[in-house]
Amino acid sequence: MYRSHTCGELRLSHVGTQVTLAGWVQRNRKLGGMTFVDLRDRYGITQLAFDEAVNKELNDQAQKLGREFVVQVVGVVAERSSKNNKIPTGDIEIVVEKLTVLNASEVPPFTIEDETDGGDDIRMKYRYLDLRRNVVRKNLELRNQLSFEVRNYLIKNGFIETETPVLINSTPEGARDFIVPSRMNPGEFYALPQSPQLFKQLLMVSGFDRYFQIVKCFRDEDLRADRQPEFTQIDCEMSFVEQEYVLNMFEELVKQVFRNIKGIDFKEPFLRMPYAEAMEFYGSDKPDIRFGMKFVDITKEAQIRDFAVFNSAQYVAGICAEGCASYSRKELDGLTDFVKRPQIGAKGLVYVKCEQGGTFKSSVDKFYSQEDLKSWAEKMNAKEGDLLLILSGDKVATQKQLCELRLEMGERLGLRDKNVFAPLWVVDFPLLEWDEESGRFKAMHHPFTAPKPEDVQFIETAPEKVRANAYDMVLNGVELGGGSVRIHNGEMQQKMFACLGLSQEEAQSKFGYLLNAFKYGAPPHAGLAFGLDRFVALLAGLDSIRDCIAFPKNNSGRDVMINAPSIVDKEQLEELNIAIKLETK
Amino acid sequence: MYRSHTCGELRLSHVGTQVTLAGWVQRNRKLGGMTFVDLRDRYGITQLAFDEAVNKELNDQAQKLGREFVVQVVGVVAERSSKNNKIPTGDIEIVVEKLTVLNASEVPPFTIEDETDGGDDIRMKYRYLDLRRNVVRKNLELRNQLSFEVRNYLIKNGFIETETPVLINSTPEGARDFIVPSRMNPGEFYALPQSPQLFKQLLMVSGFDRYFQIVKCFRDEDLRADRQPEFTQIDCEMSFVEQEYVLNMFEELVKQVFRNIKGIDFKEPFLRMPYAEAMEFYGSDKPDIRFGMKFVDITKEAQIRDFAVFNSAQYVAGICAEGCASYSRKELDGLTDFVKRPQIGAKGLVYVKCEQGGTFKSSVDKFYSQEDLKSWAEKMNAKEGDLLLILSGDKVATQKQLCELRLEMGERLGLRDKNVFAPLWVVDFPLLEWDEESGRFKAMHHPFTAPKPEDVQFIETAPEKVRANAYDMVLNGVELGGGSVRIHNGEMQQKMFACLGLSQEEAQSKFGYLLNAFKYGAPPHAGLAFGLDRFVALLAGLDSIRDCIAFPKNNSGRDVMINAPSIVDKEQLEELNIAIKLETK
């Protein structure tokens, strides 16, 4: 062993002990005849002291140590004269007797500090140096801790972690698959799993009863901040349970994680909000309920005067921004610009300021009386000093716009504190959603989700009415996980495939093994999957899941550190019976 | 919840309680006016009792239950009149009041029993039914338990589980890579990792200090019983440690696993055997030391008479098979045939029977005197009643043949008991081995293994002499894991690449990021990886790792259950800029 202690371990009680430490040079300071070196490892920082008067040669050696040199020192622990109460080892220093450079270092391309001078690109290229920074490594430590907590909870509750295969079949439903040519089966391909969905259901058919897996999944999609081509799921499935049992089991998991990792104790059961309500009041199936500002529908109250914009709208609704009546013209114009951005797409924004003394000032003053505006304010529960922000148009589109506006206002008003956690379940999702592009229904969750028994009657006549026994756990406006009660009956599964426009032959060729398995005694079962990356990002208060992945890919799916993907040898392709066919445009 | 208890839970203390159970029909027996159904789930089997006299309709219903039907029953726990002491629930039965068929089942294609009537092929096709069998599911439960123990130990010892990427670069060294076309980077490919070797070394450069990961790895090799295209490694790496520390850390891990899972306490430190000794006495770098029968070199003692076979041989050596002097002609012929099989390739087998009264009978009687044979017997420590089996020829080849013969004799003599576990470390491997095919040296472990400091002097002049700080853990003749101290110095790494015939440009293009990382303060580090599949197989006493993998592939790399790999859509290939190019022969 190159060390007797780590750099985070020594305290006053060790004074007088001879120790050996090893680590990286964080800082090197000359102070009169003394040299002080901060030695860093994963566990902390310890100050090394060299005294010219005691050993000139050693002190000279120390002065030559550059940043990020790897060194080993032997010395005696001594009490510091000027203590540093910012670090746990700040009471002591090592009076060094022997110094060995284990490895030198060139000057790193950016500083290895919490606040680094390195930009995103260079830090990704030198990710191995970026990971030396405490703030980055802490995210990975948190990730490890989260997985550990999750495993402990699930194993304690009888779940068996079971590995499902990575080389499977392509099922071109939903997102694109990554595929892998098979050398032994020329012309054929494996696919990387988008999730172990079918395998976990088969494990239920196998009587595994409770399954989980923390598992890599793959999607060949265009990327953005919270998407990576490979991501990690906490994947779970249970037999002989109803939805209620599943919700309780995983709610308790999340509570335990927060208790043990963040010291936060959720005493109340999580709110359960039907999908319809989430859309009505938040315009989103993942509402951020850290703050109120719920939508208020004032269509009726708005369509009473000669204002064509509102009168022609299917839906007029607004939110009440507390204390914002003092917003300047510039601020209001800013909000208007915000909702008019192409990504949001509103045509305009109507505001009503609820001023002191019970008067109202509005962008639609000339169409509505003070009484009219007062009735809106009352319906929206506004007080003096509040600001009403109102959008109108097609209902679904307007709800989406209002959702963005609400989140923006929450941000501006500081209501989206990363240290506040507001979880809820969104339940009763529609089973199907109409897909304009293909002109048919597609499964809202996936084609294995069970309809609510009481809604099954509509499945052929009015599919859009059918609700699913599906649920999402939402935390601070992010979908942390989701799942459903599954179909466990072959006939119902066939019916579902038919709804989705899959012929019996197609269903058989794509999911034949599942339909087959259902013939041999499939138990009722249900499950759920959490996104591990998102979970860590939320716990750590990160904006991008990239920061909690050791070696992430960029938006082109490229690992810039190792420069993957890359060209492969011609022989390799030949052996795999494939050729590159680039389009010549 | 569909049940109040599991099928493995009820005891005499529950008598009189009303319970709800759910599970699969294992067996259905009619006995006079009674029907008895064995209800099975993961946790056990509980007997259900139906009485025609009490409720004829219910009894009729019960009689119609086929094997593997999924049912739910409500009833009262009662003491059995004839108890079954073979199962924990054998004292009680459920007097059923209500029976619900949750799902019917067709007659399964093989019996769901420990001893099934299903052959290998059909069981793999219906793997979801095969996994219902206790003996199979137990292996997967053991696997889960092993991972859990390993994680607990490593996390307790400060290792951080860190996920490394699955989509990486192809490095055509060693085995073949699986590759994945990149849609976003036309003409370029990812590769699936054969191990996270370089990433874990980079994590050491990052100061992670102690890393582990239980991780899927991939090799596109021709398959056999203990190889799968995807397999799982327990992958570990540590900084600031020497070999000794690593061996102790992981020896204790294995000891803890055996203690907690098998109730076996290894009190002594594991034997550490230099590679040279393993080859000399066992002809293998993974000796099975559950039994002795070490090789004895009798080249000198054999080359004293006019027997050309021995005289022309580089090496004559044998093993002593205790108590086998009574072997018949047929048995000896059988052994001769065994060593002459093409896979083993010996030219013949010489035997010496050490008979009662101190006389010897041998296949080379006419060349050697009784005194000669006696001197062999003495050197080989043979007693009266033992049998000497002797091979000769080129040393390396003969050692390999003798190794096979020794294992065969161990098998025949019942010395390879699956319930006996004999672990050891094999150490001091050669750094390099000569590769006839390419006419150059290749790394015995991998190109990142550090030479022993005292042998570095030979690295350019006599590379074959250089030993590595590399180690394998061997258990019952199987390589359970292996690792090495790594090179952490760029210059030494370049020297190693040069030894392997890699030009500086090639090295830079393939491993540039590692060489780069070594410029910025790489700490001394070392690591190891265990094969999880093999570890489970050994603990469970299985012959093939396939039996401890939930959904394994066959020898053609095919998952016969889901029929992967398979054809993919033409559009998919086009989007990926590749085409199939089958050779027309």
Q: Which properties best describe this structure?
A:
homodimer, OB fold (Dihydrolipoamide Acetyltransferase, E2P), BirA Bifunctional Protein, domain 2, 3 domains, eight-stranded mixed β-sheet, 28% helix, globular
Description:
- With 585 residues, chain A is an alpha+beta fold.
- Chain A folds into three domains: 92 residues, Nucleic acid-binding proteins (OB fold (Dihydrolipoamide Acetyltransferase, E2P), Beta Barrel), CATH 2.40.50; 260 residues, 2-Layer Sandwich (BirA Bifunctional Protein, domain 2); 126 residues, GAD-like domain (Gyrase A, domain 2, 2-Layer Sandwich).
- Chain A has 16 helices and 23 strands.
- Chain A has an eight-stranded mixed β-sheet with strand order 6-9-10-22-21-20-17-11, with helices on both faces. The first copy, chain A, has a five-stranded mixed β-barrel with strand order 1-2-3-5-4.
- The longest helix of chain A has 23 residues.
- The relative contact order of chain A is 0.10.
- Chains A and B meet through β1, α3, α4, β6 and β7 of A and β1, α3, α4, β6 and β7 of B.
